[in-house]
Amino acid sequence: MAAATLARRIGRSGVAVMKFKSPPVNSLSLEFLTEFSISLEKLENNRACRGVIITSALPKIFSSGLDITEMCGKSIEHYTEFWRAVQEMWLRLYGSNMVTVAAVNGSSPAGGCLIALSCDYRIMAENPKFSIGLNEAQLGIVAPFWFKDTFVNVVGHRIAERSLQLGSLHPAPEAHKLGLVDELVPEEKLMEKAAAVMAQWLALPDHARQLTKTMMRKAVLDRLVAHREEDIKNFISFVSKESIQKSLRMYMEMLKKKKS
Amino acid sequence: MAAATLARRIGRSGVAVMKFKSPPVNSLSLEFLTEFSISLEKLENNRACRGVIITSALPKIFSSGLDITEMCGKSIEHYTEFWRAVQEMWLRLYGSNMVTVAAVNGSSPAGGCLIALSCDYRIMAENPKFSIGLNEAQLGIVAPFWFKDTFVNVVGHRIAERSLQLGSLHPAPEAHKLGLVDELVPEEKLMEKAAAVMAQWLALPDHARQLTKTMMRKAVLDRLVAHREEDIKNFISFVSKESIQKSLRMYMEMLKKKKS
Amino acid sequence: MAAATLARRIGRSGVAVMKFKSPPVNSLSLEFLTEFSISLEKLENNRACRGVIITSALPKIFSSGLDITEMCGKSIEHYTEFWRAVQEMWLRLYGSNMVTVAAVNGSSPAGGCLIALSCDYRIMAENPKFSIGLNEAQLGIVAPFWFKDTFVNVVGHRIAERSLQLGSLHPAPEAHKLGLVDELVPEEKLMEKAAAVMAQWLALPDHARQLTKTMMRKAVLDRLVAHREEDIKNFISFVSKESIQKSLRMYMEMLKKKKS
Hints:
Chains A, B, C: Keywords: Acetylation, Fatty acid metabolism, Isomerase, Lipid metabolism, Mitochondrion, Transit peptide. The structure is a homotrimer. Chain A is an alpha/beta fold.
């Protein structure tokens, strides 16, 4: 098992930096998601760690989102395990007691965007070639309701409605204008800025900050917890459709051609 | 029965253009609403039709909103039938599976504004003399909760709270700034722009786009469906009050004087 | 008992001006809150009064928020009475049938900010030295859910989430940019502007405006009403913790040092 995610702790400040390193595009495979969740759990339980900066070790890409190969031609058991891992990752990240800062140093479609949206603060490299968004509709699939809830909590109902229906990938400047990311900085300043933002958030008393975060996010977290099995069933029934399998295969073909 | 609405289908692109043509001001009478709903239903059931552009065939006015004569001095039965037709129109339009684009080529108060708000995208002629808003409070009446819900989904809670309490009619530039309309273009470019926006939305796979739209709008649609009879009763009890009848009569007198 | 709040009615226009006058910083003591609620109740029941402008009679401060001495080293009975008075004030102000305009002529942290947020319109002196915000987290405490609900209704979920977690006090220009206040004017024009805004809101028929306001605010008001006793218990259990008492004492020490 390759080290998909790399968690490095910076001792004195209590801040971990987690770098996604799963070539070629940090796609969220079952293996990657499992390792990501375990890393988050370890940091969460480590009293020395108060915050985590999430970024990519690969050039030009933050994360390409859910690994489509996990959704193509697999068994019901596999789909179940995979989807539970996606849910688990989000429940841990969106509900984290740590301060979470996304340093988005590349493109970040679909599940990659969800990871950024689930953090407390999003800084993106100000490169108009990098884009971010929940573009599921472009692939003929539908973002789950909790992706949507997370998105609405960040950008509001109208921007989410339009962006989700169009499956938009927003170039960094547009993403900033829409409020999808909080700040743009030159790529070489990204980690420095992330550390500064982290320091600002860590200046608050942990307990009060954590209770406040819970107050803001509990309704949306509880909704998935209450409908978790139903959500898995929906995913399986959707992904098992021949029309969807065809769409996903066509999309993968397109990606392969683009690459070669 | 005069043709209040005119539905014309453009064969190849799968886009219908619906032009309101009920002089003098496209007010939403029982007859107009019935014809509008039937037209929407026909287009919805026509597999060749994937989108509809809604605009006005009259100069300077998109729609003046609910026809006040339907609310003055009529029977309970009439009020019931009228209000059910208003609900029906909104349920069809806000819940439409088609891509709906409003090409707002004139002023659009109250119910006219609701029609625009219920579409997927709103383009307005950039004429500051044209205004749009839910101005019910100005007439001494209250926008129904589902008008409000639709409004909040577009502009957010604060802008809706202020605009509804003041019964504001926003000139086009202000409406754009508030997010009430998505885009302003010179009046002569309105239909061209609407067609371009439609093409962008139709580039998405229908099924994914429709499910996404449903996910965004279902909560608000369900709320009226669950309280439909109660909402009719509220309307009747409100409109039957002598004070309200007096307000509406005064408003109609004012409109008549303005006209002459 | 000193006159903490001073209600003066301007006969002809039906507008009351309420000036906070509880030196040194208009902190919301049990006595102040009680007097404030009684004043609001009297105005509410006075048919001649249709609107109230709330401002401060002291320089540089609108209100410093909840009086921390009421939360330090007191009995359970006292905490209960105090918290009920905070709730009562908010229920009256946020649910008022009058038009309420906050003329924020100084800094307005925590409970002071809540008072401004609960009005229909907020005008602030455009002095960057004056700041406003729900900064509870800075003190190691958590804003109650109904402070949060009121805040979200004004600025939306994302801005509220960030501002509450950071316990931000926003300088007037930033507060305006975030939508926390509606307008900035030079301090000497504040009351004139407040009167003009009031006149604009009073031009609407009272009944329609009041029903519209209720429609917008009822869900959030009902939520406290339904959980009022639970909310009091939460406050008591929180404020009774030794760690919280320590935080509050430290904060009071800091304020004393700052002053001397």
